[in-house]
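INFO batch 0412 | record 1 of 1 | parsing
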Amino acid sequence: MFDPAQMQTRSQDLEDAWHDAGQFYWARAASWKSCSGIFEAGAEGLPLPRYRVQDIDTEEDWCRAEWLMRAMQLGKNP
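INFO prediction complete | emitting tokens
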């Protein structure tokens, strides 16, 4: 929820929102040495398909990730 005024709006009707999946970060060495934040001006996101991402915080999340991996291997998804 970014805007409390939208509390009664269906999520399908809101604009898409991204979150940091923590997958990969690329930068030049000078950028890392500058100690500035990684979400500064010029930072770009890379959309990942939902079926290729699993946040793992619980044992249930881990089981889901294993299930998804098996399903992708059987289906030969890219």
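INFO post-check: The chain has a mean pLDDT of 84.
INFO record closed
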